[in-house]
Every structure is written in structure tokens, then in C-alpha cells.
């Protein structure tokens, strides 16, 4: 009887290990933590666990990066099972800010603001960050042209190397680090891609009679799709955030509406 119980306990332990995945998370301080999750867990489940460890309440602004085919800046799909995203354990990810609020003071949670500060410092300095991130630092950082922008290298219609920077305010076109043009979300009517070509359809201005189409070429169709998804996610996130603030101005954070936001983003990107 005892032997049977020991065998049963051993089998249960083996089953638990087989059903669990081990994730190694690099934090913004440079430290690493290990998180165990169920194999059927999604990217959102993992992000929630990491934010819980860090006491970050406003988790909607953050995301997880992983390496895919040599590209170190691929966002973990929050709606997809981790077991379908990763293969060999441990699964390695980096915790970082994904959506940078145009006004850092909008973050009411100290830990969320602290983590955002670390992310901004890392983006600017690409080195080890100090232990504290002051709100004043963020207030100065937001004035920089590339604050909170996710930059993608593209070629314009003349085959010139330029960059498209996606952020809370819209999409900027930069060359040699200098911003040449800015397109706020209200100016952009449609964002699309086909194979390697990414296209913006812009609203006609008071001086233009017709809409404008701008096309950019990326290194691959995968890179084109990644830029398209980044653009759609940012547009949806901040549009929904503004609507939530308008409806519920007294809310100090948007965590309660997280599922609605993710659902809208994923549906728009064609993942629902």
C-alpha cells in the first residue's frame, strides 16, 4: 500500500513537472528571475505573474520581448500559449515598457512609474541604470523627439534608408536621427501591409484635395507585418485609453479594463 502511494506521489510530481514551463525573465535592473507557469498559460498570464512579483499595478503599459530568428525585439503575443511561442527551456524573455504614456504623471502607481523610468533610462543610455527613476526625469524625457518610440528601419520610395518611429502620438519619419515628419493618429486613415511593403493612407489636409498614400519597404514580409502590428497596437491602446479616461476620469489606472483593451487589439490584428 505504501509503495503504491509513493509511486502515485511520484507520478503526480512527474505530471506537474511535465505540465509546467520555466521562464527566465530579465528585469529592467539587469537582474533575472525565474517564473514557473503552466504550459497552457498565455503571454498575458506570464506578464501578470511578472508584474505581480514586481508589484506593478498598471501592467497594461508593459510587455515581454523575446528573440525570434535572430531578431531580439519581438513582442510576446499575449493571447497565444507560451508553449506555441517557445521551444527549448528555459524560455527567455525581457520585461520592458511597451506603451509609453505621453504624460508620465498619468501613472499613479509608484512601481509602474519606477519601471517606466528604468525603461526610458535604458533606451537612452543602453547601460546599467541607477536604482531610482524620478518623475522629474520622465517629465524631461517626454520632451525628447524619440521618447517612448519603437523604431523600425525602412526604405522610402527613393530607396533611401530612413526610420519609422511609432509612439503614443502617432508615427514619425526620421533620417540620421532627425525627425523629418510627424503623422498624428488623427491624420492616419488606414495602416496596411502587403509582403514587404508597409503603407499609410493619410487624411487630406486643408491644402490637399486628395488623400495621400505613403509606402515604405522593409527587409522582409515578417518585418513589415511586425511594423503593422506595432502601429495598430499603439493606435488601439491609446485610443481606448483616452476613451476610458473620458468615461471614467476618476480611475487611477486601467487594469480593470485590461481584458477589453487586449481583446480589441487582438481582434483588430486578426488574432480573435
UniProtKB/TrEMBL annotation:
**Main location class:** other
> Which keywords does this chain's UniProt record carry?
Cell junction
- Which InterPro entries does its entry note? Band_41_domain, FERM_domain, FERM_N, FERM_PH-like_C, PH-like_dom_sf, Ubiquitin-like_domsf
Taken from the UniProt entry, a GO cellular component term is: cytoskeleton
Q: Where in the cell is it found?
A: Cell junction
- Entry's Pfam families? FERM_C, FERM_N
In this chain the FERM domain maps to: 21-272
Q: Please cite one Gene Ontology biological process associated with this protein.
A: neuron differentiation
Source organism superkingdom: Eukaryota
Span of the secretion signal? none
Q: What is this protein called?
A: Jg21774 protein
Identify the species of origin.
Pararge aegeria aegeria
Which gene is transcribed and translated to give this protein?
Answer: jg21774
Amino acid at each position: 500500500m505504501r509503495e503504491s502511494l509513493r509511486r502515485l506521489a511520484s507520478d503526480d510530481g512527474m505530471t506537474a513537472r511535465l505540465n509546467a514551463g520555466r521562464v527566465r525573465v530579465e528585469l529592467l535592473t539587469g537582474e533575472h528571475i525565474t517564473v514557473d507557469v503552466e504550459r497552457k498559460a498565455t503571454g498575458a498570464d506570464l506578464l501578470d505573474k511578472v508584474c505581480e512579483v514586481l508589484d506593478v499595478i498598471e501592467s497594461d503599459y508593459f510587455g515581454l520581448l523575446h528573440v525570434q530568428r535572430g531578431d531580439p525585439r519581438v513582442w510576446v503575443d499575449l493571447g497565444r500559449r507560451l508553449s506555441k511561442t517557445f521551444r527549448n527551456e528555459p524560455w527567455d524573455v525581457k520585461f520592458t515598457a511597451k506603451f509609453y504614456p505621453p504624460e508620465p504623471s498619468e501613472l499613479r502607481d509608484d512601481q509602474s512609474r519606477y519601471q517606466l523610468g528604468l525603461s526610458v533610462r535604458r533606451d537612452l543610455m543602453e547601460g546599467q541604470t541607477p536604482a531610482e527613476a524620478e518623475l522629474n526625469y520622465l517629465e524631461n524625457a517626454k520632451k525628447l523627439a524619440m521618447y517612448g518610440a519603437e523604431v523600425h528601419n525602412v526604405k522610402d520610395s527613393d530607396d533611401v534608408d530612413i526610420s519609422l518611429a511609432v509612439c503614443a502620438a502617432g508615427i514619425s519619419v526620421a533620417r540620421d536621427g532627425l525627425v523629418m515628419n510627424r503623422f498624428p493618429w488623427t491624420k492616419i486613415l488606414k495602416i496596411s501591409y502587403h509582403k514587404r511593403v508597409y503603407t499609410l493612407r493619410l487624411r487630406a489636409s486643408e491644402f490637399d484635395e486628395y488623400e495621400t498614400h505613403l509606402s515604405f519597404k522593409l527587409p522582409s514580409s515578417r518585418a513589415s507585418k511586425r511594423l503593422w502590428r506595432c502601429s495598430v497596437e499603439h493606435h488601439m491602446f491609446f485610443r481606448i485609453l483616452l476613451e476610458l479616461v473620458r468615461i471614467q476620469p476618476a480611475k487611477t489606472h486601467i487594469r480593470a479594463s485590461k481584458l477589453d483593451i487586449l481583446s480589441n487589439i487582438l481582434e483588430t490584428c486578426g488574432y480573435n
